[in-house]
Amino acid sequence: MKPCTFCQIASGEVPASIVFEDEETLAFLDHRPLFPGHSLLIPRDHLETLIDVPAALLSQLSLNARSLAIAMEKALGAQGAFVAINNRVSQSVPHVHIHVVPRTKGDGLKGFFWPRQKYRDSEHMEEVRAAIARVLKETEGDKP
């Protein structure tokens, strides 16, 4: 059986551009983002689908997705965010993950057609990661 890539990221075996982490969750930049800042928020424990997530953890994931969306507006000048979970169908990695994507009016994202793009280079990826991580750290006390 093939090891879970997201579990390997959570354990540090596979590198990722981490923007946020706490004891139960981890968020990192998607390596094929819709827009710079597109992040994936995962539980550290291997849970395959949304249905497998205990209520308390689902609450924490929701709060952290909210914090990521707020950070993207402040850090990247986004006007909003697209937040989505694929559950089995179109779930490229069988480990529950929440897409948090910064949005601006007229950005070209229509429905569920997701034209992927790449970061200009690793420096651009790091710049975007650091900006989101900085705002998340600065706003830690803003959680309800």
Quick structural overview:
By secondary structure, this protein is an alpha+beta fold.
Could you please describe the fold and organization of this structure?
There is one protein chain. Helix 2 packs across helix 3. It contains three helices and five strands; from the N terminus they run H-E-E-E-H-E-E-H. Helix content is 32%, strand content 18%. It is of the alpha+beta class and 144 residues long. The chain has a five-stranded antiparallel β-sheet with strand order 1-2-3-5-4. The radius of gyration is 14 Å and the shape is globular. The mean pLDDT is 90. It has a single domain (5-142), classed as 2-Layer Sandwich (HIT family, subunit A), CATH 3.30.428.10. The chain has helices at 5-11, 55-76, 122-138, and strands at 18-21, 25-29, 39-43, 80-85, 98-103.
Describe the global form: globular
Helix content: 25-40%
Number of strands: 5
Number of helices: 3
Low-confidence stretches: none
Classified by CATH, the class is: Alpha Beta
At the fourth level of CATH, the homologous superfamily is HIT-like
Number of domains: 1
Query: What's the average pLDDT?
Result: 90
Secondary structure class reads alpha+beta
Rg is 14 Å
Q: The CATH topology is what?
A: HIT family, subunit A
- The largest sheet has its strands arranged as 1-2-3-5-4
Euclidean distance between termini CA atoms: 40 Å
Report the CATH architecture. Answer: 2-Layer Sandwich
Largest sheet: 5 strands, antiparallel
Q: Which oligomeric form is depicted?
A: single chain
Q: Beta-sheet strand percentage?
A: 15-25%
Q: Can you write the helix and strand succession as a string?
A: HEEEHEEH
